[in-house]
Amino acid sequence: MLLLPIFNTFVFVLTLVTTSNSNPAQVVQKWDQNACTLVVCGPAQNGLPGSDGKDGPKGEKGDQGLRGIPGLPGKDGSPGPKGDIGAEGPKGDCGGRGKQCTSFEGGQRRSLIMYCTSVFFLAWIFINGNSAGEKIFETNGSEGDFETSKATCSQAGGLIASPRNSAENSAIQQIVVRHNKAAYIGINDIQTEGSFKYLNGEAIGYSNWAPGEPNNVGGIENCVEVYPDGRWNDKSCNEKRLIICEFSSP
Known about the structure:
The protein is of the alpha+beta class. Helix content is 14%, strand content 23%.
């Protein structure tokens, strides 16, 4: 735009007017008295590009969307390599004789005597032990002197075999024959020579001495062993003999 102050003059306005029946390039001249401005209009041109809107204010944070549905589980990975064989563990303690199983229900104790009816226990007794009356005689084949035999049986929950009648003596004899080893029994005269007693100090009421026994050879035979024929012999307490223990039947 060009501004020209004019007094008592005309303003020349050039306007390009395009009509349906006129030439687009035709220039139409119009005169307007008392005008104060000269406006020259030409063909329209493209303006400057507007801003991209990035400089506008940041909108408020929208609400968190719903959680998507979990995807399907992936396939199992291939198995890892086989590990090395671990070191050998320490040797366990010698197991004791099985004990009576018990359970508690409603504050009442109910005995579940299982070991005497267990097939495994009966088979074990058949191979390693015998029963007589209310006693069960067992061995694991180990040997020891008199004190070791007493301690081994005690740790197992029993006593060293102490026959009180011929039936019990016969049950012990069968074990001795099976292992072909003589065994100590729980009888000795350690306290008083010639006075043989059970471990509880009770004098024996049954005996099955071999001919000429007891004879206390060398003055050191204070313990008693059972031969494969079932006969008794007084013997030093420091010898190694088959360990046979006795337990009360349930």
